[in-house]
Amino acid sequence: MELNSDFSSRVVVHSEQLEWQASPIKGVDRRMLDRIGGEVARATTIVRYAPGSKFSAHTHTGGEEFIVLDGVFQDEHGDFPAGTYVRNPPTSEHTPGSDEGCTIFVKLWQFDMDDRNQFRKTMADELASPVDGVATATLHEDDRETVTYSHVDAGATLTSDAKGGIEILIIDGEVTAGSDVLEKNAWLRLPDGENLAAVAGKSGAKVWMKAGHLPFAKAPAV
Questions:
Q1: Tally of CB atoms within 10 A around 222
Q2: Entry's SUPFAM superfamilies (predicted)?
Q3: 67 pLDDT higher than 80
Q4: Concatenated DSSP letters for 94-144?
Q5: Dihedral sign of CA atoms 142, 143, 146, 147 in order
Q6: Are 119 and 141 in contact (CB under 8 A)?
Q7: 84 and 137 part of one domain
Q8: How far is CA 88 from CA 21, 85, 201, in A?
Q9: 169 with 129, same domain?
Q10: Lowest CB count within 10 Å: 128, 140, 187, 210, which one?
Q11: What angle do CA 18, 21, 23 make, to 5 degrees?
Q12: Residue 183 above 90 pLDDT?
């Protein structure tokens, strides 16, 4: 399966307008944003766990990165409430589920295969002091990518001229980027060479961003 797999094109997905699609696991549904591959895929997805739903134990051969958007995600490593950012690198194992239900934004098979840096962070705890109405936390940075989280005041502009492509997820609030108005859980991906200028709406915005990673996009090595 290929979905939004042309990484030289601008892509906008208003995910709240998409129907939920069932996954192979009962009680776990998803909204696909981009994908290369079948059930084993380089994928960017919003995933919803019904209360009490659970995956069997498995290994993330290509790594997994996710944000808890609402509820509490759980595995044998602990409870992960809304606002938590998690990186489970290649070869990591867990048994994910949620007693109360949750929604996560997850990226699979998008790691450096030598990366073994496993961690979780409460994104808001990492925020630096605001500059021109934008407070930003650097969540992860390596030779391939930079991952950040920002609180953007009403009317302020979140900018990036990073090389290697940019993508953002609107965690809360609203921004306008070009001709697109992006509300909660909307996702924008910009190709290499296109800069970001996202102006927050009247309630401000909370925005997750990844930059520099698109030249490394490819199908899983399985």
A1: 10
A2: RmlC-like cupins
A3: yes
A4: E--EESS-EEEEEEES-S-TT----EEEEGGGGPPPPBTTEEEEEEEE-SS
A5: negative
A6: no
A7: no
A8: 24, 10, 33
A9: yes
A10: 128
A11: 145
A12: yes
Q: Is the pLDDT of residue 13 over 90?
A: yes
- The model's confidence at residue 222, banded by pLDDT at 50, 70 and 90, is low
Answer with the one of 121, 147, 170 that is the final residue of a domain: 121
69 with 94, same domain: the answer is yes
Of 105, 121, 137, which residue is a domain's last?
121
Q: Which CATH number fits the domain that encloses residue 173?
A: 2.60.120.10
Whole-Å CA distances, 17 to 31, 109, 125, 160: 10, 26, 31, 27
Distance (Å, whole) CA 52 – CA 141: 34
Over the stretch 90-112, which tens digit does the pLDDT of each residue have?
999 999 999 999 999 999 999 99
Contact 46, 71 (CB under 8 A): no
Mean pLDDT for 196-201 is 98
Cα distances (angstroms) measured from residue 26 to each of 10, 20, 34, 71, 190 = 33, 13, 22, 18, 34
* pLDDT for the residue numbered 39: 83
The Cα-based distances of 77 to 41, 84, 105 in angstroms read 24, 13, 19
Residues 6+ apart with CB under 8 A from 195: 159, 160, 161, 166
d(CA 1, CA 41): 9
82: which 2 tokens? 């809304």
pLDDT level of residue 198 (50, 70, 90 thresholds): very high
